[in-house]
Amino acid sequence: MKATNTTIRVCMGTGGIAAGGVEVLDAFRKELELAGIKADVKKNCSMHKVGCRGLCAKDVLVDVIIGDKKTTYQFIKSDMVPRIVKEHVVEKNPVREWMVGEDYLAFHEKQFKVVLSDCGSIDPEDISAYIGVKGYEAAKKVMTSMKPGDVIETIKASGLRGRGGAGFPTGAKWEIAGKQDSKQKYLICNADEGDPGAFMDRSVIEGNPHAVIEGMIIGAYAIGADKGYVYIRAEYPLAVERLRKALSDARENGFLGKEILGTKFNFDIKVKLGAGAFVCGEETALIASIEGQRGMPRAKPPFPVYNGLWGKPTVINNVETLANIPYIIRNGDRWFASFGTEKSRGTKVFALTGKIKNSGLIEVPMGISLKEIVYEIGGGIEGDRALKAVQTGGPSGGCIPAAMVDMSVDYESLIKAGSFVGSGGMVVLDETDCMVNIAKFFLEFTQAESCGKCVPCRIGTKRLLEILTRITKGAGKEGDLELLEKLSKDVKAASLCGLGQGAPNPILSTIKYFRHEYEAHLEGRCPSAVCKELLTYYVLEQFCKGCGACLRACPAGAITGEKKKPHFIDSGICIKCGACFDVCKFKAVKKE
Amino acid sequence: MVKLTIDNKTIEVPEGTTVLDAARMLNIEIPTLCHHPKLTPFGGCRLCIVEVKGVPRPLTSCTTPVSEGMEITTSTPALEDLRRTVLELILSDHPNDCMICEKAGDCTLQELAYFYGIRENRFGGERRIYAKKDGNPFIERDMEKCILCGRCVKVCDEIQGVEAIDFTYRGFKSKICPTFERDLDCEFCGQCVAVCPTGALTGKTWNLRGRQKDIKEIDTTCSYCGTGCNLTLHVRGNEIIRVTSKEDKWNEGWLCVKGRFGYTFVNSPDRLKKPMIRIAPKLSADSYQLTANLFKEVSWDEALDYVASKLKEIKGKHGPDSIAGLSSAKCTNEENYLFQKFMRTGIGTNNVDHCARL
Description:
The complex is a heterodimer of chains A (about 600) and B (about 350).
Chain A: E1 6-11, H1 14-18, H2 21-34, E2 45-50, E3 62-66, E4 69-73, H3 81-90, H4 102-109, H5 127-132, H6 137-145, H7 148-158, H8 170-179, E5 186-191, H9 200-207, H10 209-223, E6 227-233, H11 237-252, E7 268-274, H12 283-290, E8 314-318, H13 319-331, H14 333-337, E9 347-354, E10 360-365, H15 370-377, E11 387-392, E12 398-401, H16 411-416, E13 425-430, H17 435-449, H18 455-472, H19 480-494, H20 498-502, H21 505-522, E14 537-539, H22 549-553, E15 559-560, E16 568-569, H23 579-583, E17 589-591
Helix pairs in contact in A: 2-3, 6-10, 6-13, 7-8, 7-10, 9-10, 9-11, 10-13, 17-18, 17-21, 18-19, 19-21
Chain B: E1 2-6, E2 9-13, H1 19-25, E3 49-52, E4 59-60, E5 71-73, H2 77-92, H3 108-115, E6 139-141, H4 151-159, E7 165-168, E8 175-178, H5 191-195, E9 201-203, E10 216-221, E11 230-236, E12 239-244, H6 257-261, E13 276-278, E14 295-297, H7 300-318, E15 325-327, H8 333-347, E16 352-354
Parallel strand pairs in B: 1-5, 15-16
Antiparallel strand pairs in B: 1-2, 3-4, 3-5, 6-9, 7-8, 10-11, 11-12, 13-14
């Protein structure tokens, strides 16, 4: 039995590895050898590890490509591999019940991939795979046939804006840096992604590190920098490993170092590991951290393009921004500007998470509606419950209510709605989520991550968190809501950096759209039945069969009752752990 | 030169001047806590915020450089409201124990609370509690009173070049401390004490000796070395209770550990005020005790005659090179010059040295 032109691709992003990708890859190797396909392994049958392909909820994802026919399997475990090899690879009968369904296709149909176009199909650890998809051609074109000013004009014309959150036009930033009269300039790639639930930058570096490197080479050429840094979190070991490999391969192939590709342009990149402080994603704190100082922001102006790393003009671009660059140079500014809206061009990568069926990494053209993202790409809400809100922009963002789900997703619209594109986190919330609790969650995060430098952020977020905490505990006082709003506005206005200025956004947006939930808490009720202190558990006698499951599950001994007779929960003893609610098969336990 | 207007007053200042400095040149008062004229701007306390025409959000005047045609407003109801919130936030995390605080009457935070009339505070809540006391001999560090203005960190780094302390931890738990929260082990120059705007850093020797009331400030020159730093002695009754240094003198207010903390000898009962001559022979090292009955109090003439006769005797018996002289950094240049002259011509030896070589 001989297979012809067979390729097997196993998802090896962090999601894939966590779901058992390494074991699956090993199993394929073993099974193919056993099946006697060994002899032709190199020529006809190859296995690739590939980066993230988006739909992490269905990992491990495996592509089996025979000839030009591609079949994708989902939820693959190593013990399923023998059957795939036997039936599909050897006997040419794909295993239908393990194949991806319509939702997988729908997940990809509405997306448009630029940054992620090669993620998930090429081996990120092999530079020739990237070169094989026209990689480094843009860098070659720029260095051999374009002047730095032409590159800047192209990026300006494309309308690319910073993908790290603030949306500053990338071309304009490069232009200012290019004009600075300084022998030494720096280009920094900000890969200090720290928003809860966000993994865009990690996935791009894990899936296609060379695109980021190529973007940096082009940026450095445009502004006249000869040193670059990638500031990346140490908590991203796989991304760091692949980035380091990619850098050394790029150096070996002459894309980095002295006199690149025979030109007079010198550029090299260092990797600087961040120690996990969220605030180091703020550009002046990031610079301080590279310089060996404590990661604390400083006041702007002066902006880093004038006075940055070691006092020299410095451009800081986000991973996704840089990964867009090679594609823009290769395909032209008009091509890029043809996607998106008037002011927000191109595509944006989002990490779609929360109460959504298809959670994962998505790339969509700017201006797509929130509804399309949630219901078509995301496949709707888990358990078909009702959508309540979508939280975007991480801890500095806000919540967009379900009523506004038709809105366009772009920089301007989101800011108008009281939120923020941010780095691209998108957390879907449903009717079982308490908005006060969500605001509290984000404040816990920002409070713990405040650098402590300025008063409104250090103490202000603490006081905001304390007020929110007492509201969720039913200890809210009269005037708390007004105080919360007032202090939120003051913290926003008076804080030094984006962390403090953005920290009150989750509160302000939830008060704006879900004020009734705050008021209910002040009256002692949590409408979504989330806040433990405000809940009472009781048994609906008409549904209770007296099975005793709740009685056995209760760790506090709060439930009494005879067999086959309605049980009773003593609210004085009840610790509100919810065990009875979870165990009851007859929906006889109610919480409110 | 850059021309700008602040509160409708026009001023021309050199490029690179901050808005705060320009305002102060116009005698416009802007409240600050973290700013110190000798240190690089910090921008942490947010009290010096001003409105700049055309900029949507308030900017800190201490960090913002002037630019041509800038129009600044330093006080509006919105700005004062934000300043008030910031002060209330600081006070909500501050032990309001001015009654027993060493710094009362000389505390910038207390002063601002007074001017903003903050009696009630909208923001109650958790306050940082630090039980551990620093065991160093000179500087009392009460970190509960610390407002994290960062002045101490900057002075230690930028002026003294020691970097003994820095910010640690994050969020509400942020704290300024030495490495690994060990006890302070530095030069103890006390520059940090001099710049602290609250009672967080004080001298251990100051404790319960009196605050600003009934203090007589006496300017003098430090006698510890030939540098000649200006000192201001804070005298209560007839006792020095604290030493500071004025910023407008040539040493710019900076002192060393000796000048700042080495003043307790003045009132020490062990201090020698008159010359004494040993009357009893020196005992063996372990039984040696400096007690009054070993010495006899004498007049200066008597003491000097005694020294002269002894020196002559030794010189006559063993030659001039059997004698050596060690001079002191506490003497002036002129005194040291005379001392070496005396050793070379009077005694006739080159055996002369100076403690500053150690």
